[in-house]
Amino acid sequence: MSMPKDFLWGGATAANQYEGGFDQGGRGLATSDLITGGDKNEPRKVSVINSEGEVKYLPAYEAVPEGYKGYLDPDQYYPSHNATDFYNHWKEDIGLFAEQGYKSYRMSISWSRILPKGDLSEINEEGLRFYSEVFDELLKYNIEPVVTINHFDMPLNLADEKGGWKNRETIDNFVEYSKLLFKHYKDKVKYWMTFNEINFLHGYNTLGIHSKEDKDRFQALHHVFIASARTVLEARKINPDFMLGMMVASIGTYPETCNPNDKMQEIEFNRMFKYFFSDIQCRGYYPAYAKKEFERKGINLIMKDDDLEILKQGTVDYIGFSYYNSAVVSTREDVKKVGGNQFNAVKNTYLEESQWGWPIDPVGFRVVLNELYDRYQMPLFVVENGLGALDEIREDGTIEDDYRIDYLASHIKEMIKAVEYDGVDLLGYTAWGCIDIISAGTGEMRKRYGFIHVDSNDEGKGTFKRTKKKSFYWYKKVIASNGKDLSNE
């Protein structure tokens, strides 16, 4: 078994977890710059201040109260500031990606590096030039850039001064930002995605809102949907050959039992956690189940007259998605919940778990590939899949990460089955954290995903030296064989 000859093997990262250089090259502050470190037991915090000078540290992925703005504490460590310093190592890193034989590299652009205030009042030419050089280096090695326009942050000015995505003006700001990218890179980038894991957008960090109420989150999300659809329409005007995708976190789910109530619970979870987002962006309308949910919760979205037509016209060309684990849904109230990718569910006794408590479910990967393709009948793109684990450097400097190889090999095997046996139309596979980056969920460095080790610790201290792990050479062999050779030899 192997993949089509034009299959886009590669790796994936995100600017707020990898790029660093937060105060270099004219970049403006972003909401992600205010998030502290943490671990699996201590959630990350966002630092904010009010007009009286009161500083608070609040859960990073929740809402910040009205009257508070982002605050950089000079005595605090913020992992995204340096991350693993792609900003100063990009040529070296792309050279390593090329050595592995990448056909594609999925990355994100920092909105505030292009527009420091989030709008056209200031355009940072140095930021535009930086990404242009990155794309040129990738293309030199025949690596296809796959670009996420917005990945889990926004310019701080838009969040603090404009109300984030609750303010409809943010739609225009995002569309103008996107058009700027399309015009500058129309001959360098073909594959784009508008928003990363759109179903995880909530609170201050990703939406820039100061509210926990469902009505405010869904109003903000409506603006995100319109911005995405308008962006798709503008992209097609600039270059009809562009491929525009959406991106969703796709956690496979099972009902705990054959109790019909458990099955219905699973259906309801998948609707509002996952399919609500992909239905709107792939089908171009609000689904009936969502309208009923809004009725029950008293949510009345404020729309303009042409909003629904924009959604209808601005559907995407493909679905990008992440898959790390599955989850078990239960109606029981007496069960102990377990974690996994910012989501609580019931423990699956049939599966092993990672060191961070995430169920390892390769067959669930095949299930998700089939579910998405059956539902939408449009091309899919696996843009995140990987294992966060502790890596040990041996005395001779080697890193024998067989656990990572085992995880990826078992998932790729099931992915190939989805294509070969099930007929899923799959564009590519980009392993998550192809080089070590800071964890989005915990802010740790010790939770490593990469094929390439970066010398930095949970306090951001180290030489940032790059070292190839055993998995580096394994994945190189996988790509060279187009998925035929998954052996760990």
UniProtKB/TrEMBL annotation:
The keyword Hydrolase applies. The active site is at E384 (nucleophile). Keywords: Glycosidase, Hydrolase. GO terms for molecular function: beta-glucosidase activity. One of its GO terms (cellular component) is cytosol. It holds the Pfam family Glyco_hydro_1. GO terms for biological process: carbohydrate catabolic process. PROSITE patterns: GLYCOSYL_HYDROL_F1_1, GLYCOSYL_HYDROL_F1_2. Transmembrane segments: none annotated. InterPro entries: GH (IPR017853), GH_1_N_CS (IPR033132), Glyco_hydro_1 (IPR001360), Glyco_hydro_1_AS (IPR018120). Belongs to the glycosyl hydrolase 1 family. PANTHER family: 6-PHOSPHO-BETA-GLUCOSIDASE ASCB-RELATED, GLYCOSYL HYDROLASE. This is 6-phospho-beta-glucosidase. It comes from Alkalibacterium pelagium. The lineage of its organism: Bacteria, Bacillati, Bacillota, Bacilli, Lactobacillales.
